[in-house]
């Protein structure tokens, strides 16, 4: 496969813009810009083109998913708190019929009970939790592996 053939949309939901500052014991001390940098470097190594967006607004995330339905080969998303209740976001993800990976900085299963349930997980190919920003790098590898897998 020629380099940069694979295109991945990376989305962060509400409050992820405060990563590094917000509850660093849970979400890490790395600001989102540094996580972006780590993602971009690894994406380049893997020959993956990325578009990255953070929004505090459910509708903006949904619009972005819809707009990228023809551009993207896969989506990596950390929906933040929307994970736990946004059927609209889940519907947007299923509508575009792209492989989805759900990533959480913290281990949502070791936290409050209301975080144990994800409405996105059942429509995701895979979920990565508790690995901090490195979870996005792992998801890039998973996507590359999935797409280049010889069936
Ligand atoms: C989070 C986990 C969510 O429960 C929370 O609402 C967030 C961040 C994570 O990355 O660990 O905003 O998605």
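^ Assign residues to that structure.
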């Amino acid at each position: 496969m020629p380099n940069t053939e694979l295109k991945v949309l990376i989305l962060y939901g509400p409050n992820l813009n405060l990563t590094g500052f917000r509850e660093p014991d849970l979400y890490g001390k790395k600001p989102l810009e540094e996580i972006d940098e780590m993602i971009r470097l690894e994406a380049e190594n893997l020959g993956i083109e990325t578009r990255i967006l953070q929004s505090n607004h459910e509708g903006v995330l949904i619009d972005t998913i819809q707009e990228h339905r023809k551009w993207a080969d896969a989506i990596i998303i950390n929906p933040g708190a929307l994970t736990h209740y946004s059927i609209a976001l889940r519907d947007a993800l299923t509508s575009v019929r792209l492989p989805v990976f759900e990533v959480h900085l913290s281990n949502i299963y070791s936290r409050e009970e209301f975080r144990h349930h994800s409405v996105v997980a059942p429509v995701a190919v895979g979920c990565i939790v508790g690995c901090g920003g490195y979870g996005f790098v792992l998801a890039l590898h998973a996507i590359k592996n999935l797409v280049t897998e010889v069936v």
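Strands lie at 6-12, 48-54, 74-78, 100-104, 126-129.
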